[in-house]
Amino acid sequence: MRIGGKTWVFLNSSRVVNDLMEKRSAIYSSRQYMPMASGILSGNNRVLLMPYGERWRMLRRIMHAILNKQNAPVFAPFQDVESKHLLYDFLHTPELWYSATQRFANSVIMSVVFGKRMELEDPKIRELFDTSNAIVEAIQPSANLVDSLTFLEYLPKPLQWWRPRGEAMFAKTVKVYQREVEDVERKMKDGTAKDCFATRFLKSPETKDYGRTQTLFALGSLMEAGSDTSRMTLSQVVAAAVLDKRWVDTAQQALDKVCGSNAERLPTFDDRKDLPYITAAVKEAFRWRPFAEIGVPHVLIQDDEYEGYKFPAGTLFTWNATAIALDPREYEQPERFWPERFLNADLDHVLRGHWSFGPGKSPGSAFDVVTYSVDTNFCRAQSMFGLQCRGVKCLDYGRSLVILFQLRGHSGEQIFSYKQHEG
Ligand code: HEM
Is Metal-binding one of the keywords (predicted)? Predict the structure, then answer.
């Protein structure tokens, strides 16, 4: 497909995503230069939008050294305490349930990256979500004409109508990141900083060569990439529970077996092995409504050929995540939220059976952190309250979502009933 001046290829089946973006990832994983998204909005510092090169390799290496599966235990205590906090928020301020899941997701990642927790309705969380929304919007095809017709960037600056908006968002982004980095640096100076990703990153000699703005973006984009993604998945689980009671009942029975039918205790990480149905439900949440609806574009860096098609270097490829997730040739009854489909030998391979983390593999997937976050919260909320669906429910696919749900105690009393419209 030609969009603006560029050729895009949308891959519509797992087979071809696997053949090209996975097996040939060495040539299918670079990023296009987008004057607005990677240039003005990111100052060429966002790892998600960086082309192959020494800087990209260095950043990926450091991220993986700290954010890998072996470090999963680093996340566990934060997830544990934050999910208890989430239950507390659900119980005491149910009308803020949506902000509560945002706080949860953000606080886990802030604890890991900056060694600090976040409060409910902290305006800083709102600002962070504004910056992440801006970049997610900017990478959609044709979001900014200059990113499709890149010659426009040679217009004299005063004629670049997109520039003032982009520069204002860049300044806001830097401010949001800088506040956190300066805070941790202050604590490092006075000896009160907790060991976290930022302290290790800031001490690493490798990171010095790329300057201050790169440091801000390396740390800032982690909190950005790790917050909205997990928050969104949690909301999808709530939406799925509202839409289909069948799987919720099965999940409840599984939880009752482990924690007692009167929620005698909270589920813990150690219960995970006894709750395969919950693990399957979380994988199903990743499949059912992938976070990156049409994937994230990658650039082919050398000419290639596949099944008779010839692709020149520079062609953009993306995995068409939603189309694949909802294709009946890929999944039986794809619209149905049906955890049973993942009760198979690959259950514990968080990446197998869906493309939610992308063929380039989000560093967030490496240590199962998100899976733990989502399933601990679901288990705990379900086991304590029981999510129940009532009344008319409607889910518009995409970013617009109407949720009507209730939490009930085990004796059936209503804890809260709420209708939320997000769009
Ligand atoms: C529900 C949770 C998450 C989902 C669905 C998700 C999804 C994605 C996707 C689709 C990509 C693009 C991959 C590609 O282009 O091939 C990505 C990239 C990225 N994610 Fe995640 N992610 C999640 C959680 C996290 C977390 C918790 C972190 C950090 C702690 C994180 C950090 C990153 C980073 C740094 C990148 C850019 C990597 C690169 O381009 O080299 N993500 N994520």
Answer: yes
Closest CA to 370 of 258, 284, 286, 250: 286
**33: burial class by Cβ within 10 Å (0-12, 13-18, 19+)?**
middle
Residue 283 to residue 274: CA distance in whole angstroms? 16
Q: Is the distance from the beta carbon of residue 292 to the nearest atom of ligand 1 less than 6 Å?
A: yes
Structure tokens at 176: 């949001």
Å from CA of 350 to ligand 1 middle: 14
Which residues make Cβ contacts (< 8 Å) with residue 317, sequence separation at least 6? 8, 9, 11, 20, 21, 28, 297, 298, 299, 300
238 contact partners, CB below 8 Å, separation of at least 6: 101, 387, 403, 405
The residue contributing the CA closest to ligand 1 atom 13 is 358
Question: Using a 6 Å cutoff on CB, does residue 291 contact ligand 1?
Answer: yes
* CB atoms closer than 10 angstroms to residue 265: 10
DSSP string, 371-388: HHHHHHHHHHHHHHT-EE
The average pLDDT across 280-294 equals 92
Instruction: Give domain 2-422's CATH architecture.
Output: Orthogonal Bundle (1.10)
Furthest C-alpha separation in the chain:
69
Residue 51 near residue 44, CB atoms below 8 Å:
no
Report the C-alpha gap between 369 and 349 in whole angstroms: 13
The Cα–Cα gap between 343 and 270 comes to 19
Select the highest-mean-pLDDT range: 4-8, 67-71, 263-267.
Answer: 4-8
DSSP state string for 230-296: HHHHHHHHHHHHHH-HHHHHHHHHHHHHHHTTTT-S---GGGGGG-HHHHHHHHHHHHHS-SSTT--
Residue 109 near residue 227, CB atoms below 8 Å: yes
- Centre of ligand 1 to C-alpha 314, Å, is 23
Q: Is the pLDDT of residue 158 over 90?
A: yes
CA 287 to chain centre: 13
Domain residue extents for the chain: 2-422
Atom of ligand 1 nearest to the CA of 49: 40
pLDDT value at position 304? Answer: 98
Residue 366, both tokens = 């490496």
